[in-house]
Amino acid sequence: MPLIALTGGIASGKSTIARRLAEHGAVVVDADQIVRDVQAPGSPVLDAIATAFGDDVIASDGSLDRAALGARVFGDAEALKRLNAIVHPAVRAESARRFTAAFAADADAVVVYDVPLLVEARVDDPWDRIVVAHAPADERLRRLIEIRGMEPGAAQDRIDAQVPDHERLEIADIVIDTSGTLEETVAQTDAIWKQLTGE
């Protein structure tokens, strides 16, 4: 059964879609969770990050100080490239392991990879479908400010740091328009599930 990539910009409603697909029975593999897992204290990835960026990116409890690392790489293309060269191969290997395990447990599984940085890192992988959650940037900005409580400038920076919407839309096999109500997003997700499974 299919291996689906689900992507979207920050505050695009991607997590809502992933949750709904999981309710239908999809196996959702969360890229952000894998990043946290491969950077766990004592991991080779965390050791490599400390070597590349200094011990001050490691918190007193031995975990990654995400804020310190973020401050180090944000707006520095070379630093971000160094970080990605450490993290992306480990994430790729671990995600592949989880996909294989899901299909081994159930050959008919629908496996959904919930991945924000698909365009940047994984677009050429052999996905059966690429699903893009899409809402206009001004709507996503509103959500970041009103729902997540971010400062307008910080929210705009987060949106600007991601690839532009048109690059995600260009790779989409399926676009879910998340600019409407939650019910409309869920209805579109349900329709996609039917399309994928014939249920």
Automatic annotation (TrEMBL):
GO terms for cellular component: cytoplasm. Keywords: ATP-binding, Coenzyme A biosynthesis, Cytoplasm, Kinase, Nucleotide-binding, Transferase. It comes from the Bacteria. It is found in: Cytoplasm. One of its GO terms (biological process) is coenzyme A biosynthetic process. It catalyses: 3'-dephospho-CoA + ATP = ADP + CoA + H(+). Pathway: Cofactor biosynthesis; coenzyme A biosynthesis; CoA from (R)-pantothenate: step 5/5. Pfam families: CoaE (PF01121). CDD domains: DPCK. One of its GO terms (molecular function) is dephospho-CoA kinase activity. ATP binds at A11, S12, G13, K14, S15, T16. It is an enzyme of class 2 (transferase). Its EC number is 2.7.1.24. NCBIfam families: dephospho-CoA kinase (TIGR00152), PRK03333.1 (NF002879). Belongs to the CoaE family. Catalyzes the phosphorylation of the 3'-hydroxyl group of dephosphocoenzyme A to form coenzyme A. This is Dephospho-CoA kinase. It comes from Microbacterium tenebrionis. The lineage of its organism: Bacteria, Bacillati, Actinomycetota, Actinomycetes, Micrococcales.
